[in-house]
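HUMAN:
Just now I want nothing more than another pair of eyes on a protein record. I would be glad if you read both lines and explained how they fit together. I have put the entry right below:
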Amino acid sequence: MQIPVKFSLEEIQALLEMVENQLFRMKFIDSKIPGHKPDPAKQRVSNSAVNTLQEAYKKAKGFKSKDAA
């Protein structure tokens, strides 16, 4: 299910910064914590969400999307 939402460019930029930092933490820091249990499905979904946000941001800024190339 997809949910349409509207964000300003500044909001998308702020969200991207936060989620990119969190993804870095999931990939490289959390894995070193004793007792950490990786969740590959959650990481795939998170990467997909970040990619969607990045594409929306780039499109709004006037960059061509990967699909248009």
